[in-house]
Amino acid sequence: MKPMDEVPSSNAAFIDLHAAPGRIGLVGGNQLINKLIRKAQGPLTADGHRSMWSHAFIFSERRVDGHWWVLESDLDMRTKHVRLGVQENRATRYHDGDEYPNIAILDFGLDAAQLLQVQRRALDTLAGLTTYSLTELVGTLFSLHSNRLRRSENLLSREGALYCSAFVQHCYCAIGMDFQPGVHGKNIAPQDIEDSPLPHKVYRLVRDPVTDTTPRRMYRLKRLVTG
Predict the structure, then answer these.
(1) Which residue among 13, 136, 200, 212 is least crowded, i.e. fewest CB within 10 A of its CB?
(2) Hey, how many other C-beta atoms are within 10 angstroms of the C-beta on 62?
(3) Is the model more confident about 119 or about 129?
């Protein structure tokens, strides 16, 4: 863990410190839909409380504009032009610490060849105009209470549609990485990615803890290693 005087004071500083191509981002938002998604993942957490995460995405690269860009499947209704599905955005949309008090970056240690495959899969999915599937998200949240349903195809699966964490899993399937072996790719939730048994590092900046109602900032580096 870094000394406390080096703890990033903002989401922007945190992203600048830990982002890299192919790494996975998780955020926990304060909007109503994000709160519902976090609460629904309670069955996946160790203590049964709400998850810290409501959305997942993949870091693409830092562009000539100086900004980090991300690839994600999202429901974007912030402008007059509603965007549903796989899209590319500046990571600045996650800089607001009030709107996104929790943020994590996960490093699964991809080599150059693996990174290229993940990026190609992500861009192919973007070019294919894959839509965001709110119905599949509902199917995933419904399945969280049943191991049998988690292992089966999403009950509300739709062709050519992916929600956020299913999109991330879809891209990593290009290199044979299943975040939760035995769980269907379209039933993967953001919490599943952080809790993956695959070796990875997790960098977290948490201002809205799961069980403590006292606001605080927590910065943590966690390494998960399997035998």
Answers:
(1) 212
(2) 15
(3) 119
Q: Is the pLDDT of residue 213 over 70?
A: no
Residue found by looking up tokens 């410190």 in the block: 17
Q: Return the H-helix or E-strand segment holding 203.
A: strand 200-206
Residue 104 has pLDDT above 60, yes or no: yes
Please, are residues 70 and 25 in contact by the beta-carbon 8 Å criterion? yes
Exposed, middle or buried: residue 9 (CB in 10 Å: 0-12, 13-18, 19+)?
exposed
State the pTM of this model.
Answer: 0.84
Whether residue 26 contacts residue 194, with contact meaning beta carbons closer than 8 Å, is answered with: yes
Would you mind telling me the total number of residues written for the chain in this entry?
Answer: 227
What superfamily does domain 4-224 belong to in CATH? endopeptidase domain like (from Nostoc punctiforme) (3.90.1720.10)
Q: Retrieve residue 141's tokens.
A: 């949240």
Centroid of chain to Cα 220: 17
Who wins on pLDDT, 161 or 179? 179
**Residue 25's closest CA among 12, 36, 37?**
12
